[in-house]
Amino acid sequence: MTMLPPRARRRLAVHGGGGGPGRPSAAWWALLGLVMSGWLLTSGCSQVQPLIAAFDTTARPTAPPLIDLKVDAPDALKPLLEKHLDLARLGLLRSDETPSAGEINRLIAAAPAQARELLQTEGYFDAQVTVQRSPLPSIEAGARAAAAPGDSAASPAPAAPASVADDDPALRRDRLQVVRVTVVPGDPTQVGALQIRTEGELQARVERGDVDAIALQHGLAAVSTLQPGMVFRNPDWSASKQALQARVRAAGYAAVRIQDSRAAVDATARTAQLRVLLDSGPLFLTGPLQISGLQHHDEQTVRNLAGFEAGEPLTETRLLDFQDRLQAARLFQAATVTIEPDPQTAAETAGTTPVRVRLVELPLQQATVGVGVTSNSGARATAEHTHRRPFDWPVIAYNKLEYGQRIQKFSSDIQTHPGPRFFRNLLGLQIEHDQSATDTVLSQQLRLGRTQDTPRSERLQFVELLRSRREALTPLASDAAQSADSGPSTATALSINAHQVWRDLDSVLLPTRGWVLSVQGGVGESTSHGGATGPFTRLYTRMTGYLPLGGQWYSQARLEVGSVLHRGEVEVPDSLGFRAGGEDSVRGYGYRELAPTDASGATISGDVLLTTSLELARPIMASMPSVWGAVFIDAGRAAKRWTSFTPALGYGVGVRWRSPIGPLRVDLAYGDEVKRFRLHFSVGITF
């Protein structure tokens, strides 16, 4: 290896230390730098590599294997032995760490016992393990041959420790031996019985007849991963104990611990008797809220979102629901709800524990703009503004303007901050202009009501004044049609409405399991300009389900039903009726074109609606899990009445991608009724 020049070495030895007397001056270091630079320039970069390698431990090569380990075992057990046997780790050693032949012999001799210990973790307590090794191309014999070449009868010289750390690859190949570990696992040990006992506050409440405590204790057995008749595995046993603790902790016993646990294994009978003793500790109760992080909003708003009073059991569900409501309140950027379960402190305060709420508020005002394009509405641009406390009032003012090729909309909402039982009062205004291929609809809505939002449900109750004006774009077919339908139709309705949404999803953003149910109902009176006045009822429901099918396949199904009930001569506002077709409805058809038509051929809203959809999707490639391919079939339409309802069919394939610029969905669908393909897509960007 090329070394530094002698003078440079001496200088490094003298001046390589830290500070204090004798510290080299700046000029001294500059001179050393010049010497080093000159040496590097004259010697070339090739001289530097050995120096770097000398200090780079990661550059040291891994030693070639000394043994070839073969494991003969059932497929379920083979990876366990190949990964955890000490023999399998020899190949991970560096070339300067290769063990001696004696150490290798020790590892081979210990392999059966080690394998049996590993198999016991999987429930095999009577496994038969044998180890066979190929005849070693004796290192000692090689040493004897080197000491007396050509003399097979010569006495062997004392062999040096046969370190197999020679650098000659050929010599290593000669010394490679096969070690075969053969496993006959036998029958696995099964759980014979599972006994779960409790002590502490939980047991005391059970003995006093507390209904909640009794239900908790009786439900513990079902929580365990291991059940009688199942194979006893150490990982499952550990997971079962953790699950039992988590279940008791979630019920408010935050200091629960395992007082004792035993697994009595009878290797002959191949059974395991499991026993767990849980010390629940005290039942923690809700104490005062300790709120931090508020700058503009009231503490009372936070207390209204708690959903519990002081002295109630501090269950995990209560804390998580409180945190979810805070995060969904549109007031806070971050919210955490925690407790510090101290049994001693709880004993001094009659079991109550302070609940700590840490908040980070969202900005008082926030504005966003966005652009997007969909096959339904074409290109669009949006602008939104939110003020979370205008004029220092505890309300949220939200305004949104959307301008698109087919839809132009302005909406303005004012909602109070959450009050008792999570209710908010609201006042809303919306103006929308919607254009289809054959008509335009201009509607104005004014709402007054209240809403109640939780992570799993939404409730909206309101009184609405709605005015809708519809005008046909299609040229009229005849004078008769013109006399009947030429002018715009305008209707006004005053109604009382109730909307409810329930959801149970594994993820709100990307659901793969669960369901969402939306139900709407309203009653009111409609007045058409130049027509009759009368009552009406509007009903609508939509249910969507998600279910994983295995093999990375996921299913999604949707059912949508609606109906408007009124006398024949009464005309309700067009925007209260139904239309189908397009993205998120029946693909393969134009936006809102699956609806009845008037005498002029222009599309109008129907009084009944039925659509359904079934979709199967999966990731296209494992390396790109965010890109999914899908196949689907849709059916349905809107009609004047159920007797004239005939569903239109559409089916096709699509791609879904949660891209960095926003969600992207592209579908190519074939409309069976129109006998042609149609492309559906949507993408949006928010700034």
Write the layout of secondary structure elements.
Elements: H1 6-15, H2 26-43, H3 48-55, E1 67-72, H4 78-84, H5 101-120, E2 128-133, H6 139-147, H7 169-175, E3 177-184, E4 190-199, H8 201-207, H9 211-223, H10 234-250, E5 257-266, E6 271-279, E7 285-292, H11 299-306, H12 316-327, E8 332-338, H13 343-348, E9 352-361, E10 365-374, E11 378-387, E12 395-404, E13 407-416, E14 423-435, E15 439-454, E16 457-472, H14 479-485, E17 489-505, E18 514-528, E19 533-550, E20 553-566, E21 608-621, E22 624-639, E23 648-659, E24 662-671, E25 676-686
Parallel strand pairs: 1-3, 4-6, 7-9
Antiparallel strand pairs: 2-3, 5-6, 8-9, 10-11, 10-25, 11-12, 12-13, 13-14, 14-15, 15-16, 16-17, 17-18, 18-19, 19-20, 20-21, 21-22, 22-23, 23-24, 24-25
Summarize it.
With 687 residues, the protein is of the alpha+beta class.
Globally, the shape reads globular
CATH architecture of the largest domain: Beta Barrel
- The CATH homologous superfamily of the largest domain is termed membrane protein fhac: a member of the omp85/tpsb transporter family
CATH class of the largest domain: Mainly Beta
Low-confidence stretches at least 5 residues in length (pLDDT < 50)? 1-23, 39-48, 50-60, 138-173, 476-484
Number of helices: 14
**Helical content class:** 10-25%
Strand content: 35-45%
Biggest pleated sheet: 16 strands, antiparallel, barrel
Derived from helix and strand composition plus strand pairing, the structural class reads: alpha+beta
The total count of strands amounts to 25
Please list the strands of the largest sheet in the order they lie side by side.
10-11-12-13-14-15-16-17-18-19-20-21-22-23-24-25
Classify the fold: give the CATH topology of the largest domain. Porin
- Overall average pLDDT: 83
Radius of gyration: 38 Å
How far apart the termini lie comes to 59 Å
Oligomeric state of this protein: single chain
The number of domains is: 4
